[in-house]
Write a structure and sequence with these properties.
216 residues, mainly alpha, Arc Repressor Mutant, subunit A, 7 helices, 6 strands, 44% helix, DNA-binding transcription factor activity, Helix-turn-helix domain-containing protein, WH_DNA-bd_sf, WH-like_DNA-bd_sf
Length: 216
């Protein structure tokens, strides 16, 4: 573990026997730049969401990479404190990896706009790719005459709600509590490498007065 990340609670040991910290907070611009790669974001999504161990081969299958290429990315993520080597399982022929904490947070106080922009661009580009794939999938279903389920989730929805400061806090809390509730409900079988996944992107942006309006 390097000094590039700050972790709340006790640090997990390298063999996976220690307590997993609750939050891994990114505090170093170099650590943020290390995330500017699609495969590394997929790995972090997988390990932090599943809270279980994966091998380089398993993770490589999610990214269309070779196991050796994935091992390279895992070592880079280990260098910056995102992942740790886990205890061996089974015949121990292949190293297993786990997230270095339960949650990953970007420290917004970092004085490196370029690093944060690179990270955000990779995140948004990855989600844009998923949206485009879903558009094509739904178009193909429509051409094939497949009727969508009435409960099918929207690909993307946006808008605004009118909330006082107090209601904003309630809205934020209830939305995130729902996410955390369903994360906690996932069984070990549902967290397997072959399980079905649903990706989400949440951005809650309050409206702020402009500089001119704030002074008036």
């Amino acid at each position: 573990m390097t000094g590039n990340t700050h972790q709340e609670h006790a640090l997990a040991t390298q063999d996976g026997s220690g307590t997993v910290p609750h939050v891994v907070s990114i505090t170093d611009p170099q650590a943020i730049r290390a995330l500017a790669h699609d495969a590394r974001l997929i790995v972090l999504d997988e390990l932090f969401a599943s809270q279980t161990t994966r091998t380089a081969t398993e993770l490589a299958s999610l990214c269309d990479l070779t196991p050796s290429a994935m091992s390279y990315h895992l070592r880079a993520l280990e260098k910056y404190g995102y992942v740790i080597r886990a205890a061996s399982e089974g015949d121990a022929r292949e190293r297993r990896w786990r997230a270095a904490g339960e949650r990953l947070e970007l420290n917004t106080q970092i004085d490196s706009a370029n690093a944060k922009t690179a990270y955000l661009n990779v995140q948004l580009n990855a989600f844009r790719t998923r949206l485009n794939d879903e558009v094509q999938r739904r178009e193909a279903e429509a051409k094939a005459g497949i009727a969508p389920s009435p409960d099918r989730p929207p690909m993307l929805t946006s808008g605004l709600v009118f909330l006082s400061e107090e209601k904003q806090l309630q809205f934020n809390r209830r939305l995130l509590d729902l996410v955390y509730e369903y994360e906690a409900m996932a069984t070990a079988e549902e967290r397997s490498i072959d399980s079905q996944r649903m990706f989400y992107l949440i951005s809650l942006l309050p409206e702020y007065p402009s500089v001119g309006e704030a002074k008036s």
